[in-house]
TrEMBL record:
Gene3D superfamilies: YjbQ-like. Pfam families: YjbQ. SUPFAM superfamilies: YjbQ-like. InterPro entries: UPF0047_YjbQ-like, YjbQ-like_sf. Signal peptide: none annotated. Belongs to the UPF0047 family. This is YjbQ family protein.
Length: 132
């Protein structure tokens, strides 16, 4: 398993990490495998979505804030229950296909780290799983 460190800058943001993952695949000469990308955090997730238009990630953040407000009648003493809920909805792991030395994504797709309780220093765990 390998670990990548990512610094987030805002309480809530989507950071495009597609380039970081592509670089990891190239530097490790991965070919024809499945790559598990995992966030070991309870307030920071991962997703694949459109990265061509930044309004998509902005719309997603805005809608999540609207659906799950920061201040509600939460009981969690740390005051970040909204971040836990958002992360549970988004998810904390994704898998991608690596073929011929590159990550296989759709034309408009990118890989995003989703921060909901930043800014923080985050870790992403990467585990290539070889296939036949």
């Amino acid at each position: 398993m390998d670990i990548i460190d990512i610094k987030t800058n805002k309480r809530e943001e989507f950071i495009d990490i597609t380039g970081i993952i592509d670089t990891y695949v190239r530097n490790n000469r991965l070919d024809n495998c499945i790559l598990l990308i995992y966030s070991p955090h309870t307030t920071c997730g991962l997703t694949i979505n459109e990265h061509a238009d930044p309004d998509v990630k902005n719309d997603m953040i805005r809608k999540l804030k609207e659906l799950i407000p920061k201040n509600d009648e939460y009981k969690h003493i740390e005051g970040n229950s909204d971040a836990h809920i958002k992360t549970s909805i988004i998810g904390n792991r994704i898998t991608v296909i690596v073929e011929n030395g590159s990550v296989k994504l759709g034309r408009w797709q990118g890989i995003f780290l989703t921060e909901f309780d930043g800014p923080r220093n985050r870790k992403i765990w990467l585990k290539p799983m070889m296939t036949r």
